[in-house]
Amino acid sequence: MTNGTGLDEDGCFVREGSLDRVSARFVPVVAELGARLGAHFGPERLHSSYLFGSIPRGTAVPGVSDLDALLALREEPTDADQAAARAVEDRLDTAFPQLNGAGILLFSTARLLSERERHDLGWFVACLCTPLSGPDLAARLPRYRPTSLLARETNGDLFRSLPGLRERVAAATTEAERTRLTRGVTRRLVRTGFTLVMPRWGGWTSDLAESAEVFARYYPAHAGQMRAAARAARAPAAHPELLDELLFGLAPWLADEYLAVHGAKAPRPEDR
Question: Angle at which helices 27-40 and 79-95 pack, to 10 degrees?
């Protein structure tokens, strides 16, 4: 018997999100994304495309939520591919006031299906991404359970990233930069805190508030900071002072505890 949710009767992840859950306000956004991808990436480049985040989960809030997409390319992304993705992002952000930005991730199918990424990007595509176009890579990936291996390979690199995050925050000179960093850092801390306890809880959630509450069950001494991080992730501009407090308080403890419980994520080439 598990305490968590998001799993089927066999204890495997149920894929979250579907195109049927996209709310009416965001249906034209998704349609435009599909059209723009077709215009910028021909079938010789684009293998398949996916949505993830609040829009395919049906929880997107107009004016607050962003659009998140992942493209599986037939070859490694080039500078031209990255430029095309930025052009699509800009078009969507300009055309739809209900969007608070757009972000498109690019990866090769070889990387997404690689053994190295089996419990990180592979899991992400198979469990957290909603197919938009092309053959679904999930058919070539295994079923997943909330294991310590999955926790390690998804979020066991906070210790490696922490110095760079502190440097970026120290270098931020505008309120907009700090707001963007606050949103990204707090989301990462909440998700890392959740996956720290995910195997013990025995389930999955992408909801940040619920993630913080699940974490609080196991680490009540740090519950207040994690709840504050979840609030800041949803409204980063309202918490300008929290970023430094988290990066020098909660984050180093969380990085050390993650290593002690699950170990270090295997390095990637970009880490070197």
Answer: 150
* Euclidean distance between CA atoms 206 and 202, whole angstroms: 14
Contacts of 44 (CB under 8 A, 6+ apart): 74
pLDDT digits (tens, 9 = 90+) for 222-251: 999 999 999 999 889 888 789 999 999 999
Q: What per-residue confidence (pLDDT) applies to 2?
A: 45
In the chain, % helix, strand, coil (3-state, to 5) comes to: 60, 10, 30
- Cα distance between residue 159 and residue 235, in whole Å: 25
DSSP line for 82-108: HHHHHHHHHHHHHH-TT-S-EEEEEEE
As given in the structure block, the two tokens for residue 175 are: 């309120």
Residue 81 and residue 188 in one domain = no
Q: Across the strands, what pairs with 67?
A: 102
- Taking only the tens place, the pLDDT of each residue in 133-160 is 999 999 999 999 999 999 999 999 999 9
Residue 125 lies in a domain: yes
- Looking at the fold, whether 135 and 152 belong to one and the same domain comes out as no
What are the tens digits of pLDDT across the range 18-51? 999 999 999 999 999 999 999 999 899 999 999 9
Domain closes at, from 84, 108, 140: 140
* Residue in the block written with tokens 């592979």: 122
Whether residue 199 contacts residue 147, with contact meaning beta carbons closer than 8 Å, is answered with: yes
Question: d(Cα 254, Cα 216) in Å, to the nearest integer?
Answer: 13
State the residue range of the domain holding 26. Answer: 19-140
Of 95, 112, 140, which marks where a domain is finished? 140
CB 129 within 8 A of CB 51: yes
Alpha-carbon distance 194 to 208, whole Å?
A: 9
Q: What pTM does this model have?
A: 0.93
